[in-house]
Amino acid sequence: MRITPKKYHEHYHIRSATENDAKTLSEVRLQIDGETEHLDREQGEAYISELGFKQIIKDDTEHMNHLFLVAEVNEKIVGFARCEGSSLKRTAHKVEFGVCVLKKYWGYGIGKNLLKESIRWADAHDMKKMTLSVLETNQTAIKLYEKYGFEVEGILKKDKRLSDGNYYHTILMARFHG
């Protein structure tokens, strides 16, 4: 599925990903994975190549319950978000949301606006439930998700081991529509 591009301030805009973005997305994802422990992967793990991203973008464009958005600053991709739905009838009413932004661009509302556009799309397409997972240490993200109607559904205890050697919980959150 695609959205109409939207400009935020004069600094950046959000649009649907195209297959031409695949190489850059592969590079940006690899960089982001090395900048934060808030995500599931360490840098280089579960690497997605340009070809892999082309297939993801193609699939997300063709499926009505998938969305792949990118945020650009001066025509450079600095972050992205995905909503991935299921083809199974029993779970076709929900999508899973994920987002990441280059650390250099944190604090500009990019993640928030990727979330808002994803929510707008999900509501417009009558998705009854959006889910996400967030590490307990990412309090900024948790507060943002709560502000936009997400609630805690569960906790995966001692789910992630970070570089300090300690184990942390993953918070499962959901937002309901309709």
Describe the protein's architecture and organization.
It is a single chain. With 178 residues, this protein is α+β, with helices and mostly antiparallel strands. It is 28% helix and 35% strand. It has an eight-stranded mixed β-sheet, with helices on both faces. The two termini are 21 Å apart. The mean pLDDT is 94.
Secondary-structure map:
Elements: E1 6-8, E2 12-16, H1 22-33, H2 50-62, E3 66-73, E4 76-85, E5 94-101, H3 110-124, E6 129-135, H4 139-147, E7 151-161, E8 167-176
Parallel strand pairs: 5-6
Antiparallel strand pairs: 1-2, 2-3, 3-4, 4-5, 6-8, 7-8
Helix pairs in contact: 1-2
Key phrases:
eight-stranded mixed sheet, 4 helices, 28% helix, 35% strand, alpha+beta, globular, 178 residues, Aminopeptidase
